[in-house]
Amino acid sequence: MTRLEEQRQAVSYALENQDQRISAVEEQLSTSRKHVEEQLQQVEKVEDRVKEIVREELQGLSAGERCLTAIPTTFPDRHSGVVAKPYPHKWKNVMGHLSYAIRKHRTHK
C-alpha cells in the first residue's frame, strides 16, 4: 500500500467516524427538541388552567361584590321579626373614643 492510499484510507475512516458522531448529535437534538415541545405543551396547558382559575375567581369576586352592594342598610332581627339598624350604639362609642383621643392628643402637644 502506498503512502497516498494510506492517507486516503485514514481520511475515509475519519470522515466515516465524523459522520457517525454527527448522526448521534442530530439524534440527541431531535430527542431534546421533542422533550422541549412536550414540556412546552404541558406549560401551555397549565397556563390555560391558571387563566381559567383566575377568571373563575374574578367572576366569583365580582359576584360577591354585587351581593355585598345588594345588602340593605337595615337587617331583620331573626328573633323578633323587627327590622333594626346594624349596631348604631357601637359606632357612637367608637366615634366618642376617637374624638376623645384626638382632643387628648392635641392638649398634650
Task: Tell me what you see in this structure.
The protein is mostly helical and 109 residues long. The chain has two domains: 1-71; 74-109, no CATH class. Helices cover 80% and strands 4% of the residues. It has helices at residues 3-69, 88-107, and strands at residues 75-76, 83-84. It has a two-stranded antiparallel ribbon with strand order 1-2. Strand 1 and strand 2 form a beta hairpin. It is elongated and about 115 Å long. It starts with a helix and ends with a helix.
How would you summarize this macromolecular structure in one to three sentences?
The chain is mostly helical. It has two domains: 1-71; 74-109, no CATH class.
Number of domains as seen in the coordinates: 2
Q: How does the overall form come out from the CA principal axes?
A: elongated
Number of helices: 2
Question: How far apart, in Å, are the first and last alpha carbons?
Answer: 111 Å
Question: Percent of residues in helical segments?
Answer: over 70%
Ordered list of secondary-structure elements with their pairings:
Blueprint: H1 3-69, E1 75-76, E2 83-84, H2 88-107
Antiparallel strand pairs: 1-2
